[in-house]
User: Fold this.
Amino acid sequence: MSKPLDARAAEDAAAEFLERQGYKVVRRNVTSSLGEIDIVAVDDCMVVFVEVKSRARTDYGPPEVAVDHKKQAKLRRLAQQFLERHNLLDSPCRFDVVALTPTDGGDDWNIEVFQDAF
Assistant:
């Protein structure tokens, strides 16, 4: 049996990884009545809305498969709301998914970024 994942630790690891890849993380855990955006970042001149998914085991598939059509639609609505609130409607944007699974020893993460995931 695997130990439970710490979602906050996964988000921290994802944000740090993105920053090492050149992203500028500008907001985390942006909430509204519609839900939450895990990370809002800038990559070059692109606003990037990042969904972070982690799984302790991949018996039911990798973490990124959890970002289904329903979740994508919700993230699109959240992003639209964010862009409107911050006067960024003319800014190019995309949606990335960061998938994390623990390494074999469980002390670190395997991290994969899916740019422009949907």
